[in-house]
Amino acid sequence: MKNNSEVILKIKELKKYFTNNGVINKAVNGVSFDVKKGEIVGLIGESGSGKTTVGRSLLRLYDNFNGFVTLDGKVISGKRLSNSRNKFLRKNIQMIFQDPHAALNGQKTIYSILKEPLVVNGVINEKLKDIMSDWENVKSSYIYTFSQKVKNLKIKNLKAINKYAKVFFPKWSDTFTDYEHNFEENDEDIFINFFNYLEEKQKMESTIIDNMYSNTEQLMDFYYQKQKDFRDNKITWDEKALVETKNEYKKVKKLLKYSNEQYNAYLNKKSYKKAIKELLNNRKDNQIANVNSFNNFIFEYKNEAKISWLTRMNSYDLEFYLYNFKKQHLNLAKLREIKKLKNKFKYLSMSEVQLLIKDIDNYAVDFYNKYLENLNYSKDFKKVVKSYIKDKFSYNPQKFLKLNDNDKNKHYDELIKYYYLINEANKVLYTKQKPAASLKDLKEAKEKINNSKYVYLEENKKYYSNIKNDMKKLDLEILEESLVYKRLKAMQSFTDKAFMEISKSFFNYLNTKLLSAKSDLESLQKELNSLEKNKVNDSKILNETRTKVYKAQVVVNEIKKNISIYKNKIDSKLNTLKSFTFEVKYLLKDVRTIYLLLGVNRTKNKFVNFIKNTAARFLIKNLLYKTTIYKSLEDVGLLKQFAYRYPHEFSGGQRQRIVIARALITEPKVIVADEPIASLDISIQAQVVNLLKDLCQKKNIGMVFIAHDLSMIEYIADRVEIMHLGKIVESGTTQAVYNKPTHPYTINLFKAIPKISNANEKFENISFELDYLKEQNYPNIPKEFKVEEDHFVYGTKDQIVKWTNAVGIKID
């Protein structure tokens, strides 16, 4: 992670309270931290510390929480988000849960599971829209370049197939010609001698398919490369001339109706309308953020007042009771003030609302110090406190009123300016003026297009004539490799047929062997029955006969078992090979769609071309789904073929990789990983952690990594946040915190880390030291202190001095 990385996720004073039977649980209480691009922030704490609540709040899995959360500069907190902001949130922040099954539907294939977030977030629709915006121009500009690339990859595919098939099929064709089983060998060896054909064939076809997939990806990448070149204007002079004359023709068509002045007014009007739309959308987002900000503080002060009421009702200390009574009514006073100001300050931005609330808080602190702090307990203290607040609490918001008016005036001035400019443009447009162009000009513009097309086609012919020999060589090479492929295909028909015949003769041999064994068993069984019927008293003869019957039965069972095993092995391999056939079929279908994308499969039949272009959007969309899903599986170290399996067919580690692929497929900016390795076998935990770390660095994604395992956090995280009872008690760079843990809770957590050095020591129950909490009770006020560079600790001033001295840190 780079030190100067941009902050992608900003969390400020996040609070989430749960109420149960009148008791408020502060699950998260004023948590603040930032996450930068490519940075991993570790969130550590025991169960119940609030780690998971933070993660779930970020994804808005809880309805109400207080605080401010911005993602890439956009507010994603508050009671209500606009549809566009909600869509932005769902696409750009993803969560990986502890249990992979939480994100995997067991009744759907992996393909369907990974497709779902692409559909919901409209990712593929955006990609398709981007491709279609200049598809026709890209195709026509690089038609011969695409043709050459396609031919080269055709040759590459054929050579890849022929390379392995040239060795494989002649070898087995020779082996299977006049093939005879060697029945002097054991059954297993006889079976393996011909079964190896299927084993080797599976390996060969798997390698061939992987090569074909790789070559197919190259075609897609090549299109994107040329699309970028086109957009960067890296095209030939004749192509530029054609584009310019087409644009000129469109302009002349407009000038048949408008003068030059009116045409400029028409263009300006379009840009002004766009600016107004953007201004109104921004205003809508700002208004929602403004309302959410005020509602956030209203909800917070309600809770604070309620907590103060509950605290004083459960207190036996009169001074503490009085303190919480003051605090309760001061919060209610702030609440009334904010409600009063909410409708007056509709144009303040989120940051300005925060400044307003901070100013009210500062005023409340000054008010408390001046009027309430020295009030002692008396019979009428309630009346006195309420009277002071009613008569004296009067906040002056004048500077924010001015700020609100400035923001309001700025917004309306912008709107008025654009409406004025539109009105001025309309005056020009609706004034009768002589058109700047005539039909003659339109005809000339059309002729320029035709001339440009002619020049373009002539240049293409010249280019084609220059590469004609190269194209012929490629076609000849394709033909040669195709003939080799056909010969090998014929050889494959022979070897497949020969294998089935050899397999049949082998099972005939086993069945004959089974009949013989059954006959021997029946004879021995009859002999035993006869001995028992005649009541032969010779125990030796009876035991020997029984042993022979048992051994004969074992032989029969063994042959039956082998027949079943061998048949299952062959059926399994044949089904796998059959699946390869289907895979190649669908792969070739995708290749044809890529040819459509590249524009190299056009025919002279205009109707056929029309049908292809009509279906192009649908076909290319399906292709984008496939390539995106395959790529996401490859990114997490899984095969493309896994897309068509079900979750139960995978191990725990593979399922977690699929969950990671699902989280990454929408290309999010932030990932919240909630103990993603806790349910995995220890042997694969490191693999998954390394995968997450590599993907965050490679894709520049910020990550909040929630875990209990401190040693794992030390390895993966750039920064750490130690949580206890809803508060961040210590934070900083991983190196700073791990080198000198300062807070008592952090130190106790670190004591619990298992080490090789203490492996032989007797088990010791480590109970976390909570005495520090008593020192933070009224009237002491804890806050965050900087104890070192990039190292912060939460506590009272006296506590910080005591704790830092204990670990050898000197602070000012």
TrEMBL record:
GO molecular function list: ATP binding; ATP hydrolysis activity
Xref: Gene3D superfamilies: P-loop containing nucleotide triphosphate hydrolases
UniProt entry tagged with the keyword Nucleotide-binding: yes
One of the GO biological process terms: transmembrane transport
InterPro entries: AAA+_ATPase, ABC_transp_ATP-bind, ABC_transporter-like_ATP-bd, ABC_transporter-like_CS, Oligopep_ABC_C, P-loop_NTPase
Domain ABC transporter intervals: 9-750
EC number: 3.6.3.-
Protein name per UniProt: Phosphate ABC transporter ATP-binding protein
Gene: pstB_2
